[in-house]
Amino acid sequence: MIPMAYALLTVLALLLPDAGLAQTASHPLPLGSQAPVFSLMGTDGKLHNSLEWKDSTLLVVAFLSNSCTQSQLYEARLNSLIEHYAGKGVNVVAIQSSNPNAFSDQDLAWSDVGENLADMKERATYRKFQFPYLYDGDTGGTASAFGASVAPSVFILDRDRRVRYSGRIDDDPGV
User: Fold this and answer.
1) Where are the alpha helices (DSSP H) in 34-148?
2) Which CATH number fits the domain that encloses residue 58?
3) Is 155 exposed, middle or buried (0-12, 13-18, 19+ CB in 10 A)?
4) Residue 151 forms part of a structural domain
5) Mean pLDDT of the chain
6) Is 7 inside any structural domain?
7) pLDDT on residue 136
8) What is the domain extent for residue 151?
9) Is residue 90 part of a domain?
10) Within 10 A of 13 (CB to CB), how many other CB atoms are there?
11) 75: how many CB neighbours lie within 10 A of its CB?
């Protein structure tokens, strides 16, 4: 089921292209596209390169934001994915691509932490992330390369690192 607000925005974007909605939208990589290679700092203090997961059958790349309530809901779901698919060749990596300087105190009203790497470390520790949590917030270059313009956004990559799915983890907005 598509939420009414999303359906309304979609209709407006189609009917009113001059309203600016369609012009500013970024599109995710098309299915079958080769995923971009990335190298980002993780909350574990290590530089992570996408080639680390070259032996994974599937790689789930999730773009999150600490201050986004929907992203916060995804955190437990990502941990569950890891638990469910442990030992089956599936790996999960999350990337925070929001520039911390772009947020005001009001923007962060729904979050216990901000968007910088130190805040990400705090969140990853508190929420017991079982996946690498990587920082792309200074440039957002990795998110742009994937076409991830909103958080949360999920991409599932096959063994050859081609995009096989992009969108949400599921259609349950409240779990």
Assistant:
1) 69-85, 117-126, 141-146
2) 3.40.30.10
3) buried
4) yes
5) 79
6) no
7) 92
8) 27-167
9) yes
10) 16
11) 22
Q: Which amino acid is at 52?
A: E
Tens digits of residue pLDDT in 135-150: 998 888 999 999 998 8
- Tally of domains within the chain: 1
Q: Which helix (H) or strand (E) holds 156?
A: strand 153-157
Provide the pLDDT for residue 3. Answer: 42
Is residue 150 included in any domain, yes or no? yes
DSSP state of 43: T
pTM of the model: 0.79
Kindly give the parts of the chain with pLDDT less than 50.
1-25
169-174's contacts with Cβ under 8 Å and 24+ in sequence apart are 169/62, 169/74, 169/77, 169/78, 169/81, 170/77, 171/1, 173/3, 173/70, 173/73, 174/73
Tokens 């105190």 sit at which residue? 105
3-state secondary structure 100-123: HHHCCCCCCCCCCCCCCHHHHHHH
Q: Please, what sign has the CA dihedral across residues 68, 69, 72, 74?
A: negative
Place of tokens 């409240």: 174
